[in-house]
Amino acid sequence: MRANAHGEYEKDFYAWTSHNAELLRKGRFSEVDIKNVAEEIESMGKRDKRELIRRLAVLLAHLLKWRFQPDRAGNSWKYTIKEQRRMVEKLLRESPSLKHEIASKIDEAYEDAVIIAASQTGLREIDFPEECPFSLNQCLDEQFFPEPFV
Fold it and tell me: Backbone phi, then psi, for 101, in 5-degree steps?
């Protein structure tokens, strides 16, 4: 099977994953498509990191909207903030090593958040602070909602 492993990976990913999982369960390690299995495992970790950044960006965007357009803040924004906080916390529980990544990724998420907030508010990107005005603790604190910008 090893000679055909890459072809199966390219043609039918689901069949490839099932087959390689079965080989691993049976201890038939010499037949496993090691190169592609390693790539897929690494890709899963990167996917979780991207998901964390995406969730954090949506959370930050809504905190910015809350701060810069308080007259438009309502239940929809409140529940989006609550949901994103829960999902970030869930990702951190499922992959605790991401806690070490999140502090360094908040700037990256903030850049995305400014674009999201600008597109949803009609404000310009330059109307928002250059650096994230919220600490990571504030972002994840379910009691925190920003004071209006004056």
Answer: -85, -30
